[in-house]
Amino acid sequence: MTEMITGVDLIKEQLRIAAGLPLSISQQQVRVRGHAIECRINAEDPRTFMPSPGKITRFHAPGGFGVRWESHIYAGYCVPPYYDSDDWQTDRHRR
User: Fold this and answer.
1) pLDDT at residue number 88
2) To 10 degrees, the CA torsion angle through 55, 88, 84, 36?
3) pLDDT band per the 50, 70, 90 thresholds, residue 16
4) 92 pairs with which residues across the strands?
5) What share of the chain is helix, strand, coil (3-state, %, to 5)?
6) Read out DSSP for 69-87?
7) Is residue 74 scored above 80 in pLDDT?
8) What is the 3-state secondary structure (H, E, C) of the chain?
9) pLDDT at 69
10) What is the mean pLDDT of the chain?
11) Is 11 helix (H, G, I), strand (E, B) or coil?
12) What are the residues whose beta carbons fall under 8 Å from the beta carbon of 69, sequence distance 6 or more?
């Protein structure tokens, strides 16, 4: 989300810090442009927050200008009982 509205690659900056290098941008240089919203789909029971394994029967990934989605799921994928419940994340940015 931060990367979408500032254009700053946070992973790159973290790697620079880990390598003992300074940040490539100062706080004063950071400019917020536009708005962003994030949506996550978790394979959990909404009442207990326990894992909810099973087969994904239908899946349609979002798309379009300013839309980014991160996932490994697809129609037919079987969500195992032991997993990271954050199966799907989509971000939308608009300037």
Assistant:
1) 62
2) -160
3) very high
4) 37, 67
5) 20, 30, 55
6) EEE---TT-EE-SSS-SEE
7) yes
8) CHHHHHCCCHHHHHHHHHCCCCCCCCHHHCCCCCEEEEEEEECECCCCCCECCEECCCCCCCCCCCEEEEECCCCCCEECCCCCCEEEEEEEEEC
9) 81
10) 85
11) helix
12) 61, 62, 63, 88, 89, 90, 91
Tokens matching residue 55:
């087969």
| Token digits of residue 5 | 């509205």
- Rounded Cα distance between 88 and 33, Å, is 25
| Rounded CA separation 2/8 (Å) | 8
Phi, psi of 86 (to 5 degrees): -80, 80
62's tokens: 């979002």
Residues making up the chain, counted from first to last: 95
pLDDT category of residue 2 using cuts at 50, 70 and 90? confident
21-30's contacts with Cβ under 8 Å and 24+ in sequence apart are: 30/6
Sheet holding 67-71, edge to edge: 35-42, 86-94, 67-71
